[in-house]
Amino acid sequence: MTTEAPGWIDTSLTNGPSVDTIGTLGPAGTSSEQAALYLWADRGRETAPDIRLYDTYEQAGLALREGAVTHVVIANAYAGVHSFYMDPTLRFAGAFLFDTPHYGIAVAPGHSIPKRPRIATHPAPVALVEELLPEEYTVEEILFATSTSAAADKARRRETDLALTTQPAAKANELEFISRTRPIRMLWSVFTLVGPTA
Ligand SMILES: O=C(O)C(=O)Cc1ccccc1
Fold it and tell me: Where does the Prephenate dehydratase domain lie (predicted)?
């Protein structure tokens, strides 16, 4: 393993298969999508980014095994990342630091927020709910969504009162922030298939 440019832990990102297609968590607006765009800008081909978004990181992993993508990007805050590290068919190809877009608590316009709101979030950033929720509210229930964009979609459909989500996902779902927002400093793991270039 070598440490290369600042912020990078590089095992085979430079010598391994070229970054042709990146799979990660979607739909559009996730932190993972932004991290994949960053990886593409740094290591991808000189073409438009080819990033495929899946409903779960596990589905992105399946796409990697089936050859539909060459690389998968996963947030290290995702608890299920352990199974990617343990899988003998996958190679940890490197990691990079990348701050997520700003996270905040958002509401659909016109929705009247109860004092005890139900809040959608991906499990990884759940601690931010307590940190960012304005003090006039108390959490009634946390509903886990498959991504921060899926959480925004729940608030847009009014399945929940609020969503902890990113700025791009809030915009795409026409939500308004009711809290301050902040990025999350995150380490991102990149996996490829174990192959002849091992
Ligand atoms: O990529 C996302 O938006 C996610 O839902 C997963 C996540 C959550 C918090 C930090 C990084 C990734």
Answer: 21-197
Co-location of 75 and 121 in the same domain: no
Same domain, 75 and 129: no
Ligand 1 lined by 72 (C-beta under 6 Å) = no
ipTM above 0.95, yes or no: yes
Q: Which domain holds residue 8?
A: 2-100+185-193
CA distance 137 to 9: 41
Nearest atom (ligand 1) to Cα of 150: 5
* pTM, 2 dp: 0.93
User: Tens digits of per-residue pLDDT, 73-94?
Assistant: 999 999 999 999 999 999 999 9
